[in-house]
Amino acid sequence: MELLKLIDELEDLVEESSGIPFGNKVFVDKKQFLEIIKEIRLQLPDEIKQAEWINTERQRILAEAQQEADSIIENAKSYVQEQVENSEVIKEAQKQAEKIIEQAQHTSKEIRRGAREYADGILEKIQINLEGLVETLKQNREELK
Question: Which residues pair with 27 in a beta bridge?
Fold first, then answer.
């Protein structure tokens, strides 16, 4: 991740800068420091776009899962109707149809749950990265004071 590399560069710049005797402060090359900050600002929109893309993908996956679930349920209903019309043993057809619908609903729930977990995991990783970035920036600003 380019953003983390830039933060590492910023940290290296502070670590490698000359220190002030008897203090915790350092002399930092202003031009170099501001250049790295500028790069970080340029990278942030990409990170935000990535988070938005992941959220869009999450919505798409959930919509696909819902569509698939609806299709499975509709197919199951069609199958049930056909079995009732063509079957001599209506009770058996009803049992089978209920089982298919139950399986379809279960599959639908599992697909939606999996899609939500996947999207949540990705969003969590991005959140952690962004929180770490913010914390590092705060620390670096404090060190510069």
Answer: 18
Under a CB-based contact definition with an 8 Å cutoff, are residues 10 and 30 in contact? Answer: no
Write the DSSP assignment of 69-99 as a string of letters.
HHHHHHHHHHHHHHHHHH-S-HHHHHHHHHH
- Cα distances from 65 to residues 71, 106, 110, 112, 128, in angstroms, run 10, 12, 9, 6, 27
Supply the DSSP symbol for 22: T
Q: Give pLDDT tens digits for 99-142.
A: 999 999 999 999 899 889 998 999 999 999 999 989 988 998 88
Structural domain boundaries in the chain: 1-86
Global model pTM greater than 0.90:
no
| Contact status, residue 24 vs residue 39, Cβ threshold 8 Å | no
| Nearest 10 degrees: Cα torsion 121, 123, 126, 128 | -70
